[in-house]
Write a structure and sequence with these properties.
Helix 6 (181-191) packs across helix 8 (207-220) and helix 7 (196-203) packs across helix 8. The protein has helices at 2-25, 38-51, 67-82, 99-111, 152-168, 181-191, 196-203, 207-220, 231-244; strands spanning 32-35, 54-59, 86-92, 113-118, 125-128, 132-136, 146-149, 170-171. It has 2 domains: 32-173, Endonuclease Chain A (Endonuclease, Chain A, 2-Layer Sandwich); 176-244, Arc Repressor Mutant, subunit A. The protein is α+β, with helices and mostly antiparallel strands. Keywords: DNA-binding, Transcription, Transcription regulation. One of its GO terms (molecular function) is DNA binding. Residues 172-242 form the HTH luxR-type domain.
């Protein structure tokens, strides 16, 4: 019986504390809108683009647009840059495995939309100035809908997340970012001192396939065959510089 009384007292105290917390929250406006229609999301993003002076973005998979839609989007971004918007974008390293996406990213980077690359998982995020942010409702690339956030404390937190991720990310202009995911895996194993045959066993591929990947790495890192230099060592050094950046 005593145990039940103590439990009732504890629950009563907890309920009272929750009431106090809820009472405090009632006076705080939480400006977060759930928008599940992609057309409405695009309209709100377009409105933010017209008025904002700065954009911070994170993209886990890059653009999924094709053909005329992709060309229209590309021209829109370039026009936005010409109008003076400051843009910084973080993309996942796997995006560069697609030559078309990689070429678009490098073009936008050269035009002023500064890009960095990161290997760790990231979620889709857009933050315009310090006024509005867009986050996917579900953490799945290109999932429908978004949370539209105007709450200043939340925007500050998202900006802090972006800046810390930006600081860890690597420059898009480094030659090592031209490598595919498989080429990076091969080079990482070579950096551990493994031979081509050992790399082949580790990745469950043929030694001939490893040789092709290594040759591609040399080409992309602009390491010609010379009598004086060990290209495997130079490739590893380039890889380590990229990993440290």
């Amino acid at each position: 019986m005593r145990g039940r009384v103590d439990e009732s007292v504890t629950l009563a105290r907890l309920a009272h504390q929750l009431e106090e917390v809820v009472g405090e929250l009632r006076g705080i406006p939480v400006d977060v809108e759930r928008v599940e229609d992609n057309e409405l999301v695009r309209d709100q993003i377009a409105q933010a683009v017209r008025t904002a002076g700065e954009l911070r973005a994170m993209h886990p998979v890059g653009s999924t647009e094709r053909g005329r839609e992709e060309q229209k989007s590309r021209l829109h971004v370039l026009d936005t840059l010409r109008r003076g918007m400051t843009m910084r974008t973080i993309v996942h390293a796997s995006v560069l495995d697609d030559p078309r996406k990689a070429a678009r990213i490098r073009e936008l980077h050269a035009a002023g939309d500064l890009h960095r690359v990161i290997d760790e998982p990231i979620q889709q995020l857009l933050v315009f100035d310090r006024t509005v942010a867009f986050v996917r409702i579900t953490p799945v690339p290109n999932a429908p809908g978004a949370l539209v956030i105007r709450q200043q404390s939340l925007i500050t937190t998202l900006i802090d997340l972006f800046e810390r991720t930006w600081a860890r990310a690597r420059e898009i202009t480094e030659p090592a970012h031209r490598l595919t995911q498989r080429e990076r895996e091969v080079l990482a194993l070579i950096a551990e001192g493994r031979s081509n045959s050992a790399v082949a066993r580790a990745l469950s591929i043929t030694e001939a396939a490893v040789g092709k990947h290594v040759a591609s790495v040399f080409t992309k890192l602009e390491l010609p065959a010379t009598a004086d230099d060990n290209r495997r060592v130079l490739a590893v050094l380039a890889y380590l510089r990229g990993a440290a950046g």
